[in-house]
């Protein structure tokens, strides 16, 4: 995806959230924080130009950030709280899906909406399940290749699920559980970040929600937002190659994987959160996307 000024604004919004976390910690003066943040912006901007791919921008930004501020899980408490909030209603979410007319579709849509729920969890006023059901009923999917997914699933033996955020993975767990209800013999691997990065799910998050009950969680080797194949470990590469179907959650996974030469269907499941992607798909910002892509050439020919 080609770079533009919106990409810079989006990237530095991550910086604003991270700086807020650091500002609330002890031992950092305002002037020190200001100078380090200025250094971060300069370091990032000096390494990018208009030819930089947008999926590489966050990698450049986080390398600069960790060099200046150090590596740690800046969202650890927030992620744990979100995981705890949603795992408490996991059984209720399963019941909701299984009692619906099409349990697999209901679980699929809950998984797609999971990012939205995880971002809005702090605004819940104790009626979380009612709010989730309201979003479920009222939020339309702008690009929906679910029927194609069902057909591909019929013949699949191995499925790779590339997860996105903590909290959101509870809804992915529901989806995986119901996939296995309908296709018990399928083997499902769950790819997680190898190091904490933003709110992305790690092995720690998978343990907090008992993800191993429904899939085979593993660390992908990825330590950035999105999934750059050249920066993953051999385990991920092998599973990626052997998988019959791949589900990749989150817009950053779309941006970093959609141009790969694929010989299998990959389903990108995400909420559009920037103008560039909304223009690319000709949808509004905030749209829900579940798009099947088998090759970049086919994608280009379809838009």
Number of strands: 7
What low-confidence regions span 5 or more consecutive residues with pLDDT below 50? none
Helix percentage:
40-55%
Query: What characterizes the major β-sheet?
Result: 7 strands, mixed
What is the terminal-to-terminal distance? 14 Å
Strand order of the largest sheet: 1-7-6-5-2-3-4
The arrangement of helices and strands along the chain is: HHHHHHHEHEHEHEHEHEHEH
Mean pLDDT metric: 89
- Which class of secondary structure composition applies to the elements? alpha/beta
**Shape verdict:** globular
Using only CA atoms, what is the Rg?
A: 19 Å
Range of strand content: 5-15%
Please give the count of helices: 14
Can I get a quick summary?
With 303 residues, the chain is an alpha/beta fold. The chain contains 14 helices and seven strands. Strands 1-7-6-5-2-3-4 form a seven-stranded mixed β-sheet, sandwiched between helices.
Annotation keywords:
single chain, 303 residues, alpha/beta, seven-stranded mixed β-sheet, 7 strands
Break the fold down into its secondary structure elements and pairings.
Elements: H1 5-23, H2 30-46, H3 54-69, H4 76-87, H5 90-98, H6 103-120, H7 128-138, E1 141-144, H8 146-154, E2 158-162, H9 168-182, E3 187-192, H10 203-208, E4 216-219, H11 234-242, E5 245-249, H12 251-257, E6 266-271, H13 275-281, E7 288-293, H14 296-301
Parallel strand pairs: 1-7, 2-3, 2-5, 3-4, 5-6
Antiparallel strand pairs: 6-7
Helix pairs in contact: 1-2, 1-3, 2-3, 4-9, 5-6, 5-9, 6-9
């Amino acid at each position: 995806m080609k770079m533009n000024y919106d990409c810079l604004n989006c990237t530095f919004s991550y910086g604003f959230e991270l700086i807020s976390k650091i500002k609330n910690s002890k031992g950092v003066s305002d002037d020190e924080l200001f100078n380090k943040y200025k250094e971060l912006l300069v370091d990032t901007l000096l390494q990018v130009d208009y030819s930089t791919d947008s999926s590489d921008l966050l990698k450049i930004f986080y390398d600069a950030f960790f060099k200046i501020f150090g590596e740690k899980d800046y969202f650890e408490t927030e992620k744990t709280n979100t995981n705890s909030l949603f795992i408490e209603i996991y059984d209720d979410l399963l019941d909701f899906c299984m009692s619906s007319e099409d349990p697999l579709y209901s679980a699929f849509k809950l998984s797609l909406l999971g990012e939205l729920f995880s971002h809005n969890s702090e605004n819940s006023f104790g009626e979380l399940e009612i709010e989730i059901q309201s979003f479920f009923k009222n939020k339309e999917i702008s690009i929906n290749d679910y029927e194609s997914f069902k057909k591909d699933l019929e013949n699949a033996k191995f499925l790779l699920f590339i997860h996105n955020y903590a909290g959101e993975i509870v809804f992915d767990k529901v989806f995986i559980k119901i996939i296995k209800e309908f296709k018990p013999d399928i083997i499902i691997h769950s790819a997680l970040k190898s190091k904490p990065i933003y709110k992305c799910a790690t092995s720690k998050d998978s343990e907090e929600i008992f993800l191993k009950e429904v899939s085979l969680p593993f660390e992908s080797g990825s330590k950035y937002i999105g999934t750059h194949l050249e920066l993953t470990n051999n385990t991920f590469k092998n599973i990626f190659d052997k998988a019959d179907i791949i589900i990749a959650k989150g817009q950053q996974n779309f941006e970093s994987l959609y141009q790969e030469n694929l010989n299998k269907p990959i389903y990108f499941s995400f909420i559009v959160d920037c103008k560039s992607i909304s223009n690319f798909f000709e949808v509004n910002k905030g749209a829900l996307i579940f798009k099947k892509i088998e090759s970049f050439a086919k994608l280009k020919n379809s838009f």
